[in-house]
Amino acid sequence: MEVIQKLMVVSNPPRIYEVGTEINGRDVIEIKQVGYEFEGGIHSEFHVLDEEGSLIASVENCPVIVEWQTIAEHDEKENDPRERVMSGT
Question: For the whole model, what pTM was predicted?
Fold first, then answer.
């Protein structure tokens, strides 16, 4: 699974939103891509959310640079010790 780690709005000066940083006393916990395609175009939108899921910022139809981070998904069966097959000698 890939999640957005950092979003940089290409402007002068650039505006940077990064998971784990603080903006106006609120911690950035998640950056979500919420845009959509429609006939004849694309609406590009990102939401920057705090620890309560409240909106810190919305970035709409701006040129951005997005840094993604791959997060390993936990497979419970694969890591469950009861599911391991032990081979003896």
Answer: 0.76
